[in-house]
Amino acid sequence: MANTALAQFASPGWQTRPEPVLLPSGISGLQLPRGSLTEIYGPASSGRTSLLMAILAAATARQEICALVDAEDAFDPTSAADAGVALDRLIWIRSAHNAEHALKATDLLIQGGGFGLVALDLGDTPPSTARRISLTSWFRLRRAVEHTPTVLISLSLQPNAKTCASLLIECRRESTAWPGAGPGRLLRGIAVRATSTERSKVCSPAYTAQASWAQAI
Fold it and tell me: 86-121 burial string, b = 16+ CB within 10 Å, else e?
């Protein structure tokens, strides 16, 4: 009997976490895991904000209540509504340009529960400020969201959560469309690509994917 118990603990799968529930992001080819931290990063005009709006639009269309913690007052409700976000199912928290307050608000929202998605927008926070957020703080967020149905997203210029993020999505601009010739041309659109990379064993290796889309101006 004892040998049987020991054999169970020796089995390589006894500590394996169950595969997370994957949800559509609103962009074909990208899915997001519940109960995990997903980090989206990229420079300005790389499509990261458009990706976040697509994710929020998809979540609110599923009748889920979402929360957006806006560290730098960058959220534009009019643009979000135009992107399909149901604003009556979105709570907008502004942290007055204080990244630490934004992190604390995110932690409180997750601990409170009841949200299908919580997004921490550090996209306009200077990298030097974002890097001052300790790894311990990111680990606390990761532990808080585990075993919950919440999708936790962090948006930033550069990756900050490191190994605390279960999924890393890099956004980058591939090309721009300039109709016509000569001076005074108008920007018609931007083609961007998002590459998702598994960052820990919480996600299946088959989850790594790429997606491209055109962002109209």
Answer: beebbeebbbeeebeebbebbbebbeeeebbbbbbb
Beta strands in 42-188, from DSSP E residues, in sequence order = 66-70, 90-94, 117-122, 151-156, 167-177
Q: Say how far apart CA 58 and CA 56 lie, in whole Å.
A: 5
What is the Cα–Cα distance from 64 to 87, expressed in whole angstroms?
A: 11
Q: What is the mean pLDDT of residues 162-171?
A: 89
Q: Hey, what amino acid is at 165?
A: A
Domain boundaries, the chain: 19-177+186-216
19-177+186-216: CATH homologous superfamily? P-loop containing nucleotide triphosphate hydrolases (3.40.50.300)
Distance, in Å, from the CA atom of 94 to the CA atom of 152, rounded to the nearest integer, reads 17
Please state whether the predicted TM-score (pTM) of the whole model is above 0.85.
no
Q: How many C-beta neighbours within 10 Å does residue 14 have?
A: 9
Q: Which of 91-100, 117-126, 168-177 has the lowest mean pLDDT?
A: 168-177
Mean pLDDT of the chain: 81
Check residue 21 and report its DSSP letter: P
